[in-house]
Amino acid sequence: MHNKVHEILTGIAALVCGGFMWREASALPVWAPTGELGSGAFPKGVIILILVFGAVQLLQGICMRAPAAKAAAGKNHRMLLFVLWFLAYIGMFVGGAHLYSLLPYQPVENNLVFFLCTFIYLAGALIITGRRSKKEILLVSLGVPAVLVACFAFCFQIMLP
Amino acid sequence: MDDIFQAIQLTCAVKPLLANGIGVALGIIFGALPGLTAAMGVALLLPLTFNLPVAEAFSALLGMYCGAIYGGSITAILIGTPGTVAAAATMLEGPALTARGQSKKALDMATFASFFGGAFSCVALIVMAPMLARVATAFGPAEYFAVAIFGMTVVASLAAASPVKGMLSALLGCYCATMGGDPITGEVRNTYEMTELISGFTLVPVLVGLFAVAQIFVTVEDSLRGVTRDMTLRLSREGLKLRDFFRYKWNMLRSSIIGVIVGIIPATGGGSASYLAYSTAQRYSDTPEEFGKGTLEGIAATESANNASTGGTLIPLLTLGVPGDIVTAIMLGALMIQGLVPGPLLFQNEPQAVYSIFIAFIISNVLMLIIGLSAVRSLSNILRIPPTVLMPCVMTLCIIGAWAVNTSAFDLYTVVIFGVLGYLMHKVGMPAAPLLLSMILSPIAETNFRRAIIVSNGDYSVFFTSYISLGLLLVSAAVAAKTVWNEVQRRRHLAASQTEAS
């Protein structure tokens, strides 16, 4: 299903990304001092093709006759929240680990950061996705990190984030 | 011969068998659950195999692969929702048989046909891979360049409803692959002054992001929108009779051949194989009018074809180092992590590892039959877990999987970037498979292109003087031209129908 707005946005995104890529690759040499192809030849060729196909995509979108589809509102906010909550989960790891490393001494086991972050993430994610049973939320958000720590850290000896 | 016996000894020990069984069982669950895919399962299992020996690691991974391709048929038959793309064609017959109270019969047929296809592809892999590897030893940089270009062309042209988006996705993959050190001069490029990018993106976090995190977002979004599946599982009592199985032996053989051939072609995979086998079975059937109304013949064709494609995809991976689909792209990473360089020399330098992979693949198919027949009823109960509960839990597995590779925070950022990118790509109808496959194939293309030019002292005709290279480049050009032609025709039809409508 082609959506005119999506088609145009894809073309614009490709052109903008291509522009940034070109800026980064502009200093790379197309030819090496020995006369052979340099390190910039392939990336620049790829970027030119991205710009060309981005322009084609944009033109296709503009010339498209189909009307722009209405965005499905309503549940989109919850979806956005779910994605942001995932980003926060990663942030919790990085921030939590940083804070943990700042402690003068590490009083508890390292896996506690993972356990706590995952507990908070799962509880939040389940609420965002519409789960209402407190018992279920508590069981899943406490049980899953406990099983993961037991399975990965103790059985497989894999370091957890 | 010693290598074969040692490989049998290694793969038939308790631990590899256990790893294989767990892989198959998990694979069936991943394949059966809509929203969880074979690629996701293999990607999440991959970090667990880092510390394992080759036989155990590939037993688990191949078990997951075979199990997931088969598992897709369970939901396709029982609830009319294919767990995997490869099982989409099974949905044409499965729900109708379930509605007639023949769900057990249909599932048994799917299990036996999957085993038949899988076993056939094992034979094809064992016979064809060493032959192709011998041919490939004559390959030089020009031939490898042509193979990579062929793979990328097919990937970009087949993967999208819109070839322009397919190309953009493939080009984005090519660009991502250029980040880090230049393969010839070692010069650092396109790192945006990030030291973590000097060695480029690590493959596992990229594919976990693109194929696991993005898929989780899509599934959660579907659930939030109310696109839920009916989880009332109706499993009948009457199973398959041996007579029914033998009745379709030629159908399964034909479909398996189709599956292996389609599997060898990059980017086609089980989905295309099963549709092609289905239409071929209908054409050669004595009762073509039964197709679409619930016939075991259709299930026999689709399931044998999609499982036969698993062995087919492994052939170019092991012999040329060119992955046939996303799962084998992940397997490529697994081979490299184990210190094995896929390609023709793998058969000369590491014969024991190659035989271990072959034997593990055979065992996976046998275990798939055993677990499929005995435990499908109990495994089906996992389908009752709502996706809104399951997906956040799988998300935590994605994080562990991505972290386990290098224990680096940058890998977590990579998962986020590619997860969100994959989700946005899905939203605008841009396929993610070309991005990943190009990320793997484009360094092969660039390195071998530049190497060929250096070896030939700057003579660009080197790509056209070799018959293999010339043939592959011509086929690539033909595929690209056909894609453009199809797109022009499609747009012309669309414009004509819109004019008529207005």
Can you put this structure into words, describing what you see?
The complex is a heterodimer of chains A (161) and B (502). Chain A is mostly helical and 161 residues long. Chain A folds into two domains: 4-63; 76-155, no CATH class. Chain A has five helices and no strands. In chain A, α3 (76-102) runs antiparallel to α4 (111-128) and α4 packs antiparallel against α5 (134-155). Chain A is flat. In chain B, α3 (38-45) packs parallel to α14 and α11 (249-264) packs parallel to α13 (296-320). Chain B has one domain (2-494). Chain B is globular and about 70 Å long. With 502 residues, chain B is mainly alpha-helical. The longest helix of chain B is centred in the last third of the chain and has 35 residues, at 467-501. In chain B, a hairpin with a 6-residue loop joins β1 (180-181) and β2 (188-189). The termini of chain B are far apart. At the A-B interface, α1, α2, α3, α4 and α5 of A face α8, α9, α17, α18 and α19 of B.
How many angstroms does the end-to-end distance of chain B come to? 72 Å
Radius of gyration of chain A: 24 Å
Beta-strand share of residues of chain B = under 5%
General shape of chain A: flat
The tally of domains of chain A stands at 2
Q: Multimeric state of these chains?
A: heterodimer
Largest sheet of chain A: none
What's the order of the H and E elements of chain B?
HHHHHHHHEEHHHHHHHHHHHHH
* Helical segment count of chain A: 5
- Report the end-to-end length of chain A measured between terminal Cα atoms: 39 Å
Q: β content of chain A, as a range?
A: under 5%
Question: Total number of helical segments of chain B?
Answer: 21
What is the topology, as strand order, of the major beta sheet of chain B? 1-2
Order of helices and strands of chain A: HHHHH
Give me the count of strands of chain A: 0
Task: Round the mean pLDDT of chain A to the nearest integer and report it.
Answer: 83
Low-pLDDT runs of 5+ residues of chain B are none
Number of domains of chain B: 1
The residue-averaged pLDDT of chain B reads: 83
> Radius of gyration of chain B from the CA trace?
22 Å
